């Protein structure tokens, strides 16, 4: 009995220390005052953004709404850093996580066209070496990989515990993962895996002779005129980026949860951007038939019944053809959606992990207010 008593005292002490540490390393949640009066759509949208921050314990929230190629609404609330209390702005640089995949798909479509290829061709056309060692993977089409219908899988969660602490470069990471891919059974059913996009990023590097970050960053700045969007490479210092947060386990507070790069550069999730830059791109995607991304989109639009390759079909409202992508990693949550038929799009960025599905909830409320 005496030993059990000391065991219980020890466990209680550990738990108390955990609570104290969690409190010490966290910040009070952001609590914004609701508007005094709500007179128009602008006030309504402001009100639901404030409500979203308060209810879901968000550190910051940035939202842009585009209609008929015009910015119908744009607002940012909360902070870049709860420590410094720097206000979040439409120019704040923030990790967009898996929204990065959209940009890889758009760039790849252009790259393939320039080389006389299309997304229905097999990936062996960009890497004979990969095809000689893994012919089954080499026969996969770019479309299958973009749509996560390749049979490729991500490494298991537990394998991360045994991975080296240093961030591998893209080539080393891909070749370390290829032997672990089991594609022999021909299972090409949908399975969402970041590795699909790491592989595509590597293929672009291999064929072009340039690093993925050099390829994409030049395209982002020169072709798309996105001056604050980029992929971080091995040799680059990270520019000041918005800090990510998550809710603490016990207290109603927020704890820093920074972004970590699984691989560098990081094609599937490593893009950093701003609300203003993503609004600019969403406007071009809405204008798919007329905008500067017309040829990119046409190359990805193989089947009218499916979303564009590299884009997710997202259920937001009834009878709507919403496309785009979710992003969520570490303390960051994002959503980019648009409907070309309605000429309408929404961008949502937050530096807080989404545990309550606030992104799709907020998008539906915006659509309802604006009667889209």
What does this structure look like?
The structure is a single chain. The strands form three sheets. Strands 4-3-2-13-12-11-10 form a seven-stranded antiparallel sheet, with helices on both faces. The protein has a three-stranded antiparallel sheet with strand order 1-8-7, covered by helices on one side. The chain has 372 residues and is α+β, with helices and mostly antiparallel strands. The protein has twelve helices and 13 strands. The model has no long low-confidence stretch (mean pLDDT 90). The chain is globular and about 70 Å long. It has a single domain, classed as Beta-lactamase (3-Layer(aba) Sandwich). The longest helix is centred in the first third of the chain and has 23 residues, at 2-24. The termini are far apart. Helices cover 36% and strands 17% of the residues. A hairpin with a 4-residue loop joins strand 12 (332-339) and strand 13 (344-350). Helix 3 (100-114) crosses helix 11.
CATH architecture, by name, is 3-Layer(aba) Sandwich
By helix and strand content, what is the structural category?
Answer: alpha+beta
Question: C-alpha Rg, in Å?
Answer: 22 Å
The termini sit apart by 67 Å
> Would you tell me which CATH topology applies?
Beta-lactamase
User: How many beta-strand runs?
Assistant: 13
Mean pLDDT: 90
Element order, helices and strands?
Answer: HEHEEEEHHHHHHHEEEEHHEEEEH
For the biggest β-sheet, the strand order reads 4-3-2-13-12-11-10
Give the uncertain stretches in residue-range form.
none
Strand percentage, roughly? 15-25%
């Amino acid at each position: 009995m005496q030993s059990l008593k000391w065991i219980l005292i020890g466990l209680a002490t550990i738990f108390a220390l955990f609570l104290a540490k969690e409190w010490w390393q966290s910040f009070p949640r952001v609590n914004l005052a609701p508007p005094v009066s709500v007179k128009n759509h602008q006030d309504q949208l402001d009100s639901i953004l404030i409500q979203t921050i308060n209810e879901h314990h968000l550190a910051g929230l940035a939202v842009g709404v585009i209609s008929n190629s015009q910015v119908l609404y744009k607002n940012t609330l909360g902070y870049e850093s709860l420590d410094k209390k720097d206000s979040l702005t439409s120019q704040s640089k923030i990790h967009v996580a898996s929204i990065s995949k959209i940009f890889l798909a758009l760039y790849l479509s252009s790259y393939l066209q320039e080389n006389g290829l299309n997304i229905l061709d097999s990936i062996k056309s960009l890497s004979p070496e990969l095809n000689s060692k893994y012919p089954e993977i080499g026969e996969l089409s770019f479309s299958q990989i973009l749509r996560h219908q390749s049979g490729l899988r991500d490494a298991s969660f537990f394998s991360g515990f045994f991975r080296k602490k240093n961030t591998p470069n893209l080539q080393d990471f891909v070749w370390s993962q290829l032997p672990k891919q089991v594609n022999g059974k021909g299972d090409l059913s949908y399975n969402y895996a970041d590795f699909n996009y790491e592989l595509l990023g590597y293929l672009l590097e291999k064929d072009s002779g340039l690093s993925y970050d050099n390829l994409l960053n030049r395209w982002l700045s020169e072709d798309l005129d996105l001056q604050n969007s980029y992929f971080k490479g091995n040799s680059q210092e990270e520019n000041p980026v918005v800090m990510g947060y998550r809710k603490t386990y016990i207290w109603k507070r927020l704890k820093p949860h920074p972004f970590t790069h699984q691989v560098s550069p990081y094609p599937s999730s490593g893009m950093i951007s701003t609300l203003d830059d993503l609004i600019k791109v969403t406007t071009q995607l809405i204008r798919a038939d007329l905008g500067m991304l017309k040829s990119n989109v046409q190359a990805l639009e193989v089947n009218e019944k499916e979303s564009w390759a590299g884009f997710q079909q997202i259920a937001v409202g009834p009878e709507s053809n919403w496309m785009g992508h979710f992003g969520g990693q570490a303390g960051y949550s994002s959503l980019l959606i648009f409907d070309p038929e309605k000429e309408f799009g929404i961008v949502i960025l937050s530096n807080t992990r989404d545990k309550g599905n606030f992104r799709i909830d907020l998008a539906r409320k915006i659509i309802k207010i604006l009667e889209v």
